[in-house]
């Protein structure tokens, strides 16, 4: 099979997943956007968390041109990227009990805030406890996960539960267990993961819904502009000053 045909098959698979999410998760994405807009309009804070490759869609909505300035990345040291050495340490930390509670207790997150927890499998202790503890603190929790994992795998948390069991709103990415869209003769393992493409699209769709909801309420969405367009720095400076008490990536 030619390389170009495989590349095309990946695009087809990703587009198919995006269409499924658009059609099947649209109402819940709008609900998540409303929850975020409510937090912005009522003076609360926004946070996003993900570990390993699930951190990428979380980081993608933080300090982002065209995105909400109030979205903060809730970082767990050692789990937010492949720059940690060894890279396998991040995967191991996802299974550590109690880590999420320590992170939340030392964070500015509090009652009335919104936390988006991203975990493809939703089965490890860190995302499960992050959602559990956040709800106990009074946060609204939005989970972005593949619900298929809860049906086809076992939880690694002592409770036997998954991320989806501890969220106010669940957004299903529709990613198949194993996160590999393609197989081919001569290639022993399945390949071409699509979770980052789809989950990032979900996150941006939620942000778009939130911006629309804020505008409908007569609230100017606190959006950032690109620093590479004229006037961008001035615009962003105004937004940062106005909402500085809810923006934590500057401190």
From TrEMBL:
CDD domains in the cross-refs: SIS_RpiR
What region holds the SIS domain? 36-219
Concerning InterPro entries, the annotation shows:
RpiR-like_SIS, SIS_dom, SIS_dom_sf, SIS_GmhA/DiaA_subfam
Q: Which PROSITE patterns match?
A: SIS (PS51464)
- Taken from the record, one Pfam family name reads SIS_2
Against PANTHER family, the record matches this protein to: PHOSPHOHEPTOSE ISOMERASE, SEDOHEPTULOSE 7-PHOSPHATE ISOMERASE / DNAA INITIATOR-ASSOCIATING FACTOR FOR REPLICATION INITIATION
| Stated name of the protein | SIS domain-containing protein
What species does this protein belong to? Streptomyces racemochromogenes
Q: What is the lineage of its organism?
A: Bacteria, Bacillati, Actinomycetota, Actinomycetes, Kitasatosporales
